[in-house]
Predict the structure.
Amino acid sequence: MKVIGIVGSPRKGGNTEILTAHTLKAIAEEGLETELIRLAGLEIKPCNACGECAKEERCSIEDDLFPIYVKMREADGIILASPVYYGSATALIKALMERAGHISHSGRQAFKGKVGGPLVVARRAGQNFTAAQLAFWFQILDMVVPGSTYWNMAFGRQKGEVSQDEEGMRTVWTFGKNVALVVKKLRA
């Protein structure tokens, strides 16, 4: 059983990555394999609506997306993480969501029954909309989204500040434990 955490921040080692790694650690403690995937430095172009993915499980755009899609398809759980950029998720994670969603949804339902959910980091505001934006992706792809003690978000601006948000770190830890629990129950 494996859960992947995809970090949609263009900064390596930043708050979103710290939050995701913390969540994956909670999952790994429950005996599941985990992998952190950084989109930083990768080229993930937006969907061009060519329709190729409706014909076969592939994408006509040549960039770094498809190997990540394969990992998503093979995982039992998927976590999408994004900082808030102007009240929304980053362009990187949105491009991944669009294309991976289209590839998986076009008659294949590759993500149906997988477990997952969003993680969000904000400096001050925009986290509710961004969390909802990410959560809708899981719901439209027929995935199972476990809860926690609060929404899966934490606050921080400068690199490392998110670790000081004790409630946020505790919330995503509980979310990670719940992801592991649900994956185990569904795969038993």
Remarks:
- Helices lie at 15-28, 52-55, 65-74, 91-105, 127-140, 166-187.
- The chain has one domain: 2-187.
- The mean pLDDT is 96.
- The first helix runs from residue 15 to 28.
